[in-house]
Design goal:
Structural class of chain B: alpha/beta
Distance between the termini of chain A: 24 Å
Number of strands of chain B: 13
Oligomer: heterodimer
CATH superfamily of the largest domain in chain B: P-loop containing nucleotide triphosphate hydrolases
Largest sheet of chain A: none
Shape of chain A: elongated
Shape of chain B: elongated
CATH topology of the largest domain in chain B: Rossmann fold
Number of strands of chain A: 0
Helix content of chain A: over 70%
Distance between the termini of chain B: 37 Å
Order of helices and strands of chain B: EEEHEHEHHHEHEHEEHEHEEHEH
Radius of gyration of chain A: 18 Å
Largest sheet of chain B: 6 strands, mixed
Order of helices and strands of chain A: HHHHHHHHHH
Strand order of the largest sheet of chain B: 5-6-7-3-8-9
Largest interface: A-B, 20 and 26 residues
Number of domains of chain B: 2
Structural class of chain A: mainly alpha
Chain lengths: 244, 302
C-alpha cells in the first residue's frame, strides 16, 4: 500500500508538471463557457433554446468535453506512452505490479475530470447564474458512471492499441465522436432526433447529466448502459492489457 | 554452489524459436556474461531467469527459487536493468530512486548510490535532460536500489560513447565488489573480455561454449600471424623452410607469415642474417574474436 501511495503521489506530481493535458481537461471547458457567455444573445432566454439560455443548455455538453479530455485523451495517451517507453515493463521487474501505476493514473485522471466539473459548475453559478445541480447525488452518480464508462473504453484502447500513435489516433477519433453526440460541436437542439437519442444512451450519457443538473427526473436506462459499458470495457482491458 | 542454474531452457514466439537449448550455471559473486550476436536469444534467456517470461520447457533456478512460482520473492532479490526501457520525461533522478527504493523490503541508501554512480549533481535533473551515459547509470542505480543479490544487466553500454562505456565498466566492477552477482548480456567482445569472469557464447538459440575469456581463446588453434614490410623484396622460400612457419604470403610489399611456437624469433633472425629490415612489424595472436569465429563459424558483428 505504501508503494502505491508513493506511486500515486509521484504520478500526480508528474502530471502537474505537464501543463497542457491538465489545462485541456480542467480549464478548457470553463473557458469555452466564459467566452460563449460573453455574447449577450447567448445569455438571454430564447425560444430557439427551448425558452432557456444557451449557456444553460450547453453546460452539460461542456462536462462531456472534460470527461473526453481526461478519460479518453489524457488517460489513454499517458498509459500508451508508458507502455511504449517501457515504464510498465521496467516496473514489472520490481516487487510492485505495473497495475499500481495504472490505478494511480485512473485516479489522477478521475480527479482531473472532477476538478473540471466543479470549476464549470462554480463558474457557471457565479458568472451566469446557472443553478447548482438540483439533484447533487444523482448528478455525482451520473458523472461517476459516465466517467467510468469513458475511462474504461480509454483503458481498452491503451490496452489493445499496438503503438502510442494508434492509441492516440483511436482515442482522438472516438473522443471527437463522443463530443459530437454530446452536442459539443453542434448544440443538441440542432442535431437530428436519432443522434440526440444515441447521445442520450452512449457514454458518458449527456442527457442524464443534464437532467440531474436541472432537476428533471433522469432515465434509468442510460445509467444502466454506462455501468454495463464500464464493466465490459474494464474487464476486456484487464484481460488484454500488455505491459510491454 | 551455483546461484543461478539454467537447464535445457527453450522458448519460442509463435513459429520462431528464440531459445533452442540453453544451459549454464552462475557462481555467487562472479560476473557472468552472455555473449552473442543480436537475435541469438540472450535477452529471452535472461528474461526467463528474471521471471519476466515463462519458458516453454527447461528448468530455471535463481537463489534456490523458481522464477515462475516464486516471482514475488525473486523480485526482491534480483535487480534488472532492461534494454530500451526509459522513465517518464519529467521525473527527476532523486525522485526516481526514492520511488523505486520504496518498493523493496531492504532498500539501499539511494543517496549513497547517487554518489557512487556519479549522479549526485544530477539529483534534481529531469530524466529528459540526462545524457545517454547518465540515463544508463540511473538505470543501473535503479537495478541496485533494492540491495539485490543478483543483478541482470542487458546491453548495458549499447549506444554509449567509448569514454562512457569505460566508466560504466569500472562501475560494474565496483558493484561486484559489493558482493552482487552479475549477469551481463552483451554483444561487445571487448566488454565481455574486460568484465566477465566466465561467459557463455550463445548463437542461434543455443550455448556454443561456457568458459573464461582466456579459456575460450585457448581452445582456438594457437596459430600466430606476423605482418611486416620487408626493406627489399623477399624470397618466400627463405621462410617456408623454417619449422615454425606454416605459410608465407607476400602481396603489395607486405608479407604475412603464419605459424606457431617462437615464430617471431625464428623469422626475425632469418631476416637479420639477410640484412632485411622488417618495417611495420606486427604480431597477431588469437583473440576472443578468433575464438568466437572458431566456435560459431561466423563473426560476431555479421
Amino acid at each position: 500500500m505504501y508503494a502505491f501511495f508513493k506511486i500515486l503521489k509521484m504520478e500526480a506530481r508528474l502530471s502537474l508538471r505537464d501543463v497542457a493535458p491538465v489545462v485541456t481537461a480542467v480549464v478548457l471547458p470553463t473557458v469555452i463557457m466564459v467566452v460563449l457567455g460573453a455574447v449577450p444573445a447567448l445569455r438571454r432566454p430564447d425560444d430557439v433554446f427551448g425558452g432557456q439560455r444557451f449557456v444553460d443548455v450547453f453546460a452539460p455538453s461542456l462536462l462531456v468535453v472534460t470527461l473526453v479530455m481526461a478519460g479518453l485523451n489524457g488517460l489513454t495517451n499517458a498509459l500508451a506512452g508508458y507502455r511504449e517507453r517501457g515504464v510498465l515493463r521496467r516496473l514489472s521487474t520490481t516487487p510492485v505490479s505495473p497495475g499500481a501505476l495504472l490505478a494511480a493514473q485512473l485516479l489522477i485522471h478521475l480527479a482531473l475530470a472532477a476538478c473540471g466539473a466543479v470549476l464549470l459548475v462554480v463558474v457557471g453559478r457565479v458568472l451566469f447564474g446557472i443553478p447548482l445541480p438540483a439533484r447533487p447525488f444523482v448528478f455525482a452518480l451520473a458523472f461517476l458512471l459516465g466517467a467510468a464508462s469513458l475511462f474504461a473504453v480509454g483503458l481498452l484502447i491503451a490496452a489493445s492499441a499496438p503503438t502510442t500513435g494508434t492509441a492516440n489516433g483511436l482515442s482522438s477519433l472516438l473522443g471527437a465522436l463522443v463530443m459530437f453526440l454530446g452536442g459539443v460541436y453542434l448544440p443538441r437542439y440542432l442535431l437530428p432526433d436519432v443522434l440526440v437519442r444515441v447521445g442520450d444512451l452512449t457514454p458518458p450519457g449527456v442527457r442524464t447529466l443534464q437532467d440531474a443538473w436541472t432537476g428533471a427526473s433522469p432515465e434509468l436506462l442510460p445509467l444502466a448502459i454506462m455501468a454495463a459499458v464500464a464493466a465490459a470495457a474494464g474487464i476486456a482491458a484487464a484481460r488484454f492489457f500488455r505491459w510491454e | 554452489m551455483p546461484i543461478i542454474e539454467v537447464t535445457n531452457l527453450r522458448k519460442r514466439y509463435g513459429d520462431r524459436v528464440a531459445v533452442r537449448d540453453v544451459s549454464f550455471e552462475v557462481a555467487e559473486g562472479e560476473i557472468f556474461g552472455l555473449l552473442g550476436p543480436n537475435g541469438a536469444g540472450k535477452t529471452t534467456t535472461v528474461e526467463c531467469v528474471a521471471g519476466l517470461r515463462i519458458p516453454d520447457s527447461g528448468a530455471v533456478s535463481v537463489l534456490g527459487f523458481d522464477p515462475r512460482r516464486d516471482a514475488a520473492e525473486l523480485r526482491q532479490l534480483v535487480g534488472v536493468q532492461l534494454q530500451e526501457s526509459r522513465l517518464p520525461d519529467r521525473i527527476r533522478v532523486g525522485e526516481a530512486l526514492d520511488l523505486y527504493s520504496s518498493f523493496y523490503r531492504r532498500p539501499a541508501d539511494w543517496t549513497e548510490l547517487l554518489d557512487e554512480l556519479g549522479l549526485a549533481e544530477q539529483r534534481n535533473t529531469a530524466y529528459k535532460k540526462l545524457s545517454g551515459g547518465q540515463r544508463q547509470r540511473l538505470s543501473i542505480a535503479l537495478a541496485l536500489v533494492g540491495s539485490p543479490r543478483v543483478a541482470i544487466l542487458d546491453e548495458l553500454t549499447t549506444g554509449l560513447d567509448p569514454q562512457a562505456r569505460r566508466d560504466t565498466w569500472q562501475l560494474i566492477e565496483r558493484v561486484r565488489e559489493r558482493g552482487v552477482t552479475i549477469v551481463l548480456v552483451t554483444h561487445f567482445m571487448e566488454e565481455a573480455e574486460r568484465l566477465c569472469d566466465r561467459l557463455a557464447v550463445i548463437d542461434s538459440g543455443g550455448v556454443v561454449a561456457v568458459d573464461s575469456p582466456a579459456g575460450l581463446v585457448a581452445r582456438v588453434d594457437p596459430e600466430q600471424r606476423l605482418r611486416f614490410r620487408p626493406s627489399v623484396p623477399l624470397d618466400d622460400a627463405l621462410l617456408t623452410g623454417l619449422a615454425e612457419v606454416t605459410s608465407v604470403r607476400s602481396s603489395g610489399g607486405q608479407t604475412v607469415v603464419t605459424g606457431r611456437g617462437d615464430l617471431l624469433q625464428a623469422v626475425t633472425s632469418v631476416l637479420a642474417r639477410h640484412r632485411i629490415v622488417a618495417a611495420d612489424l606486427r604480431i597477431e595472436q588469437p583473440s576472443l574474436d578468433d575464438a568466437f569465429v572458431e566456435l560459431t563459424g561466423h563473426r560476431l558483428d555479421r
